[in-house]
Specification:
CATH superfamily: HUPs
CATH topology: Rossmann fold
CATH architecture: 3-Layer(aba) Sandwich
Number of strands: 4
Oligomer: single chain
Strand content: 5-15%
CATH class: Alpha Beta
Structural class: mainly alpha
Largest sheet: 2 strands, parallel
Length: 225
């Protein structure tokens, strides 16, 4: 279970547990802009009663505002709150895109899963309320599943490891509603790209999160930090 500490991955973890999977939360420390999301992922794993694995990796070439503090995070579209994708997010792929991140993460997870005999990899990818990253879209996951099936021992032996993206076609509101039913401790999750003690409420991730809670009429537990 790839666990980032955000809404989507936390909900996916609790959903996988509900489905009866024996889950192993897998957290990437990849030199991201802040460590708040790693701390959140640890708390979520602990709240679910599971020990987590933390895998350290570095992107020395950077190429993203999530990896390079010298680069500015994108700001909301001027003069509008809800223009693009329902959240005032600009069209196109933003500077927060990390080159090949999910390709790398899933490849590492696939190797780990095959080594320990896991049957599935869960990832909280979403292609509805998202920032437009190409590695969050259904087409990418269809291609990755095909690659995994022909490039691994388990795949060629007819026992392919399942790549599960249960939230891929859900809105943030639908995800949060599902998480509430599953008992996801959203007070431990973190979405803000800037890190810090309180969310900035301006970055893409904060705005998508706010949109989800607003649509179902529930106060975000991070509102009054």
């Amino acid at each position: 279970m790839l666990l980032s500490g955000g809404l989507d991955s936390a909900t996916t973890l609790f959903l996988a547990k509900e489905k009866g999977y024996e889950c192993r939360p897998f957290i990437f420390d990849y030199g991201q802009r802040h460590r708040r999301e790693i701390e959140s992922a640890r708390k979520i794993a602990q709240a679910s009663g599971l020990a987590c694995e933390i895998f350290k990796i570095r992107f020395p070439w950077k190429g993203s505002s999530l990896l390079d503090a010298a680069l500015r995070l994108p700001k909301p579209a001027a003069g509008s709150r809800f223009k693009v994708q329902g959240s005032g997010i600009r069209a196109g792929i933003p500077s927060t895109y990390v080159p090949g991140r999910n390709i790398i993460f899933l490849s590492i997870a696939l190797s780990y899963a095959e080594a320990i005999g896991a049957q599935a990899i869960f990832i909280g990818a979403n292609a509805i309320d998202f920032s437009g990253y190409p590695d969050c879209r259904p087409l990418f996951y269809r291609a990755f599943r095909k690659m995994a099936g022909i490039g691994t021992k388990t795949g060629v032996e007819g026992r392919p490891i399942k790549i599960s993206t249960p939230l891929i076609n859900m809105t943030k509101a639908e995800i949060i509603r599902l998480g509430m039913k599953l008992g996801v401790p959203y007070r431990y999750t973190w979405s803000c790209y800037k890190g810090g003690r309180v969310p900035c409420n301006e970055c893409d991730s904060c705005r998508l999160r706010a949109k989800g809670f607003e649509e179902i009429g529930i106060e975000d537990p991070l509102t009054n930090l």
